[in-house]
């Protein structure tokens, strides 16, 4: 989704800059612009003194300008954060020993890791995301634990079991993992 938004925004900004820049260049080279265009001739300025000071005395002008610029800034920061955010790894390079290598789909490895982790005792749900490079992947694992499970034991079973099997089956030298353990919300038990 963010890739589509990114491409559309870059395309729109590029199109606006191309049209405005091209028209200013054309007017500067002597092309006669239409009457409604912002530049009337070669020596015309973008904003005249009258245009810059027209709304100065109205009370709504500066709050509206500041609000519009603030919204534009927030949207730009959101866009930048979305572009710089780590992406999900789409494929993992598996060393087959013949010098060629094979590609393993990242979603497949994530699914197997999640299913393996959910098969552990006391894990209600597991979510796995691969990041990094395809020859050196890393995992982000989130486990939702039932109330009776010891987090240390669950972490040991995950690293010694599911992550070790995934590392060995993909012939990786290492498979670093960031693990988040969350507890299932449950009602308090009545003690009598």
Brief descriptors of the model:
three-stranded mixed sheet, two-stranded antiparallel ribbon, single chain, alpha+beta, 192 residues, 19% strand
How would you characterize this protein structure?
With 192 residues, the chain is α+β, with helices and mostly antiparallel strands. The chain contains five helices and five strands; from the N terminus they run αααββαββαβ. It has helices spanning 2-28, 49-53, 61-84, 106-118, 151-169; strands at residues 91-94, 102-105, 123-133, 136-145, 177-183. The strands form two sheets. It has a three-stranded mixed beta sheet, covered by helices on one side. Strand 4, helix 5 (151-169) and strand 5 form a beta-alpha-beta unit. Helix 4 (106-118) packs antiparallel against helix 5. The radius of gyration is 29 Å and the shape is elongated.
Oligomeric state: single chain
Shape descriptor: elongated
Major β-sheet profile: 3 strands, mixed
- Unreliable runs: none
Order of helices and strands: HHHEEHEEHE
User: Rg to the nearest angstrom?
Assistant: 29 Å
């Amino acid at each position: 989704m963010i890739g589509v938004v990114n491409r559309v925004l870059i395309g729109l900004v590029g199109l606006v800059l191309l049209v405005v820049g091209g028209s200013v260049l054309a007017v500067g080279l002597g092309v006669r612009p239409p009457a409604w265009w912002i530049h009337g001739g070669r020596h015309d300025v973008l904003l005249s003194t009258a245009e810059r000071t027209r709304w100065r005395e109205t009370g709504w002008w500066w709050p509206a300008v500041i609000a519009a610029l603030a919204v534009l800034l927030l949207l730009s920061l959101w866009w930048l954060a979305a572009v710089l955010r780590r992406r999900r790894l789409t494929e993992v390079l598996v060393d087959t020993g013949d010098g060629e290598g094979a590609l393993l789909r990242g979603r497949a490895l994530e699914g197997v890791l999640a299913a393996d982790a959910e098969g552990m005792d006391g894990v209600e749900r597991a979510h796995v995301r691969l990041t990094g490079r395809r020859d050196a992947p890393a995992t982000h694992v989130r486990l939702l634990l039932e109330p009776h499970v010891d987090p240390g034991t669950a972490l040991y079973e995950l690293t010694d079991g599911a992550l070790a099997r995934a590392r060995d089956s993909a012939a990786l030298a290492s498979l670093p993992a960031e693990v988040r353990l969350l507890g299932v919300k449950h009602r308090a038990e009545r003690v009598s």
